[in-house]
Specification:
By secondary structure, this protein is of the alpha+beta class. Helix content is 27%, strand content 27%. A hairpin with a 5-residue loop joins strand 8 and strand 9. The two termini are 25 Å apart.
Length: 154
């Protein structure tokens, strides 16, 4: 089951690359842009997160926070974040529960890898309601960054 615009965002509590617990409720009163990505250190995932990094100032001016979520370990995400100078939290969904709750999950991925996050983007408003949802079937595609920005100002 996938998340639809107007749904209440599924709650989560995950560990960041800094080994800090981060939950949806930490962002109450702010808009939140959540990007799921399949795997750290891969081409399209790096492009996705570098686009978020390069546009970071735009989101700050919108009272919005950014998060990246993948099934990578917090330790892998820490190295990815360091190498690319990401200024937003990367969260480990190592147990794959949040990716599944958001409908952003491949049961089987390339190379017979089981249980990987799909590339997806969600905008959650200050009250925890989904105002934008995009789940991509092809891991080679990027989210519509302009549509995400539009959802923040709508």
């Amino acid at each position: 089951m996938s998340i639809q615009v107007g749904d209440k965002a599924p709650d989560f509590k995950l560990f960041s690359s800094e080994l800090a617990a981060v939950s949806l409720s930490d962002f109450k009163g702010k808009k939140l842009v959540v990007h799921f990505f399949p795997m750290a250190f891969t081409g399209t995932c790096t492009t996705q997160l570098c686009t978020m990094r390069d546009d970071f100032g735009y989101y700050e001016g919108m009272n919005a926070a950014l998060l990246g979520i993948s099934v990578d370990s917090p330790f892998t995400l820490a190295k990815f974040k360091e190498d690319q100078s990401y200024q937003f939290p990367l969260l480990s969904d190592f147990n794959k529960e949040v990716s599944q709750a958001y409908g952003a999950f491949y049961d089987e991925f390339v190379f017979n890898l089981k249980g990987v996050s799909k590339r997806a983007a969600f905008v959650i408003n200050e009250e925890g309601i989904i105002t934008y949802a995009e789940i991509l079937e092809s891991a080679g595609d990027l989210p519509d960054f302009e549509a995400i920005k539009q959802a923040l100002i709508s």
